[in-house]
Structure prediction request, 258 residues.
Amino acid sequence: MWTIFGDKHWRELLKHLVKRELTQRYKQSVLGYFWVILAPAAQMAVMSVFLQYVFARPTSGVPYPIYLFCGLLAWNLFAQSMSSCTNALVINNALLKKIYFPREILVASTIAARLVDFALSSLVFVAMMLIYQIPVTWNVWWFIPIMLIQIIFMYGLGLLLAAANLFYRDIQFLWNLVVLLWMYCTPVMYSSENFPAKVAWVFKVNPMAVFVNAYRQVILGGGAPNLASLAIALVLALGLLWVSFGLFKKYEGKFADV
Prediction:
């Protein structure tokens, strides 16, 4: 699993693939990387206008636009990464037939490229933090382990989607439906506090709900995350990665034959 990070040659290949992913995405685009900032900012602005009176209460006293944007950043990173991972092997099918390299690099490079987008989009969020004068506490450092757990979860799911879609192209269409329903079950546009206790279990078993709530708690709320929920998310992420990586390597030898 750690081959791509331990071997210098594979690390160089990973860097090359990430650079290629970023370059091709905005090739012949006038605004280029500015779209990474403009798109989520526009999405936040439009959704804030139409949804703040529906979902804004309660948001723990945090202005709805920045409350919404915090959730959107985490969700967009997940949704866009998984969408790209689903087709990572399909669009590189010709490369799979030519040379050998650890195929999981294609999934890792896709997620890494989306992390670059996430970092650029976060500049808008930082600006909003300053505009709304949101105080920052030492608990903001919890952002790092939360993000690492989310990356592990995305990598595990990305490996599974990439391999499955290479053999069964229906996966990409099924995933579009799943991710839409998943978003409505995740407190991106609303607060989980709006729901009665009897349905609160949905947000505890939904990893993305755990991540979104955790980000808001440590960044906007200034407190520590729910460690119990975060521990469950970590166990689930590691379990998913272990199963997905095993299946990925099991069928890796057949990728070039598809």
Remarks:
- The chain has one domain: 3-257.
